[in-house]
Design brief:
Blueprint: H1 9-20, H2 49-78, E1 87-90, E2 93-96, H3 103-113, E3 120-124, H4 129-133, E4 140-144, E5 147-148, H5 155-169, E6 172-179, E7 182-189, E8 191-194, E9 197-201, E10 208-210, E11 214-218, H6 219-224, H7 228-243, H8 246-249, H9 253-263, H10 284-300, H11 308-318, H12 327-330, H13 335-353
Parallel strand pairs: 9-11
Antiparallel strand pairs: 1-8, 2-3, 4-5, 4-6, 6-7, 10-11
């Protein structure tokens, strides 16, 4: 939801469960966003240079997150049918209050963006039930199913306890909000989607990670993906590794989870990702399988599949395996991978031409 920071790992899981959960199962999909800057800071307070810098950091990171989640949305929603083990019913929105941010970022969120004790919508997943119901960025959450939602430092975990039983038993969530000082009642339909957590990695290393339940794309990788189609390819093949259970098969889950936990922090330990960060390189046959599935995921979400092989060639040339803790080091460039992509593209086009389901 809101920006980059995210709470620490434990609190993070809570935030995720709270606002996108459904059917009693927490969903890790999150969507970013911050309310617009407020015209004046609260009376008796002062925006210090440190707070202004923190607010600027939040704003810049939010722009990256906005792009990441916008590109991820159709991949998650349009491929729910293929996420047999990880499909979830989601509410499709996220929310935070000022306590979602530690230290100076707490004050920056409060003074610069007007975030207070109440949970406030910080993101709406494109194409979700929340988007269709008209939920907007900045809406304050008042009640769910007629039950008041908690405020303060523990609002996220408390809200989860309110949402879970309602969404587990109903197709829609009755939600009371406040917008522009006026109360409103909405009915939020649940949305079926792949329930993978989508994370922004706060690091300049050019990589993407999958730990079985989450997908992380680093700030560095976002800077390299020139178009949304290229970013969608990175997301799709990382998502494919989770769908094919590769992190567990490679016994990489714990290592990858620790890397993701670290890079979600506002101030990650960058020494932790020196060298390979303990991550084993993916065997070429597993990488090829992920590339094949990724082409289908892209096609089902209406992304351009023809550019994927060219992007991988360009990327592997610019960031070879010799770059420590880079994407190609973990996913070596091989002829088998390019062949898998090209064959998958032919398969997708043949199925489209004969009007057959886009299923690998």
């Amino acid at each position: 939801m809101i920006r980059i920071d995210r709470l620490r790992p434990a609190a993070l899981a809570v935030a995720t469960a709270v606002l996108l959960a459904a059917c009693g199962t927490p969903s890790p999909i999150r969507q970013p966003g911050l309310p617009g800057p407020v015209a004046d800071t609260p009376q008796g307070t002062q925006m210090t240079p440190e707070m202004a810098a923190a607010a600027d950091t939040l704003t810049r990171m939010a722009a990256l997150q906005d792009r990441l989640y916008r590109v991820a949305a159709p991949l998650l929603i349009d491929n729910a049918q293929l996420c047999t083990k990880h499909a979830r019913n989601l509410l499709g929105f996220t929310a935070k209050n000022r306590y979602a941010y530690p230290g100076v970022y707490n004050e920056a969120a409060h003074l610069a963006f007007g975030m207070d004790e109440r949970l406030q919508v910080t993101g709406v997943l494109a194409g979700s039930g929340a988007a269709k119901a008209g939920l907007r960025l900045g809406d304050a959450l008042l009640a769910a199913g007629g039950k008041p939602l908690p405020t303060g430092p523990n609002a996220l975990s408390g809200a989860g306890a309110v949402f879970a039983p309602i969404v587990a038993s109903q197709a829609k969530l009755p939600l009371s909000i406040e917008r522009d000082g006026e109360p409103r009642d909405l009915s939020i339909p649940v949305t079926r989607a792949c329930g993978y957590g989508i994370e922004l990695g706060n690091g300049d290393n050019v990589n993407a990670y999958a730990d079985g339940s989450r997908i992380m794309v680093t700030r560095g990788m976002l800077g390299v993906a020139r178009s949304d189609d290229e970013l969608a390819y990175v997301l799709a093949r990382t998502m494919a590794h989770n769908m094919l259970d590769h992190p567990r098969a490679q016994r990489n889950q714990a290592t990858l989870a620790s890397v993701i936990d670290n890079l979600t922090r506002m101030s990650p330990d960058l020494a932790m990702i020196n060298g390979s960060a303990g991550i084993k390189a993916m065997p070429s046959n597993l990488d090829a399988a992920a590339d094949r599935l990724a082409i289908f995921l892209l096609a089902r979400a209406d992304y351009n599949i023809d550019a994927a092989p060219a992007f991988w060639k360009r990327f592997a040339s610019a960031y070879p395996a010799s770059v420590a803790n880079g994407f190609t080091a973990n996913h070596p460039s091989t002829a088998a991978r390019l062949t898998a992509m090209e064959l998958a593209i032919e398969d997708v086009k043949a199925k489209k031409g004969s009007k057959k389901p886009l299923v690998p």
